[in-house]
UniProtKB/TrEMBL annotation:
It comes from Pseudomonas umsongensis. HAMAP family: Malonate_deCO2ase_dsu (MF_00710). InterPro entries: Mal_deCO2ase/Cit_lyase_ACP, Malonate_deCO2ase_dsu. It is found in: Cytoplasm. This is Malonate decarboxylase acyl carrier protein. It comes from the Bacteria. The modification O-(phosphoribosyl dephospho-coenzyme A)serine is found at S25. Covalently binds the prosthetic group of malonate decarboxylase. One of its GO terms (molecular function) is acyl carrier activity. Subunit of malonate decarboxylase, it is an acyl carrier protein to which acetyl and malonyl thioester residues are bound via a 2'-(5''-phosphoribosyl)-3'-dephospho-CoA prosthetic group and turn over during the catalytic mechanism. Belongs to the MdcC family.
Amino acid sequence: METLSFEFPAGQPPRGRTLVGCVGSGDLEVLIEPGQPGKLSITVQTSVNGSEQRWQHLFARMFDGQVPPAMDIDIHDFGATPGVVRLRLEQGFEEIGHD
């Protein structure tokens, strides 16, 4: 088990919070809560050791050229593929009203 932390520049926090996915299914779950203005913080707890660079590239592609809302995102991963990670994040963003 490995815990990773990432930060990106952000705008203002969203009003909502959400939980999408279910780690018990062998997938992953994503909890999104309002964060501190100007900062997007992501914490990943993953069962896949040595995957920090893969996560960094995934987030960099998602947030490149954007100013996302200030959020605290907690991800609990049990070996999900990058496509599933992106899908769950997009589901969470839709739930809180961010496109």
